[in-house]
Write a structure and sequence with these properties.
This protein is α+β, with helices and mostly antiparallel strands. The protein has one domain: Sufe protein. Chain: A (Alpha-Beta Complex). The chain is built from five helices and three strands. Strand 1 and strand 2 form a beta hairpin. Helix 2 packs parallel to helix 5 and helix 3 packs antiparallel against helix 5.
Length: 140
């Protein structure tokens, strides 16, 4: 509830240095934009904004906290473990820190999209970084 009532990362930066991804749910209120500033393979900053339910807001805020200062590979590992947890599969609890608060969401099918919308957006941002890296290599 603390991350819903007092999100630490709920603000978007108006800067070309950030990659952004907009996500909206077709079945509920969730309509958010997630952004990340990635330099030299490190996520220097991560934020989000928009209209979202409690689960979506809190889980996305925690995601932003977890990936700041991490490498792209470390962020992927965090996201992978989160997805395993949501899917009720074995996962590394230590990597997820506060995100383990969502460990029972997978038992509520109608809340899975809420708990993963921000995480899916960040995953797409990281995928875009891979494509940018491949384009740079192709031009060299």
């Amino acid at each position: 509830m603390d991350h819903y009532q007092y999100p630490r990362n709920k603000t978007l930066k108006d800067s070309q240095e950030y990659d952004s991804r907009h996500m909206a749910s077709e079945s509920c209120i969730d309509d958010i934009t997630v952004q990340a500033k990635i330099r030299n393979g490190i996520i220097e900053d991560a934020d989000f904004d928009g209209i979202a339910c409690t689960i979506s807001t809190a889980s996305t805020d925690i995601l932003c906290e977890l990936v700041k200062g991490k490498s792209i590979e470390q962020a992927r590992e965090i996201i992978d473990n989160y997805r395993k947890m949501i899917d009720q599969k074995p996962y590394d609890e230590d990597i997820l820190e506060e995100a383990v608060a969502f460990s029972t969401v997978g038992k509520q099918a109608n809340r899975i999209k809420c708990a993963t919308i921000g995480w899916n957006a960040m995953s797409e941002i990281l995928d875009d970084q891979d494509h940018k890296g491949q384009e740079v290599e192709a031009h060299e």
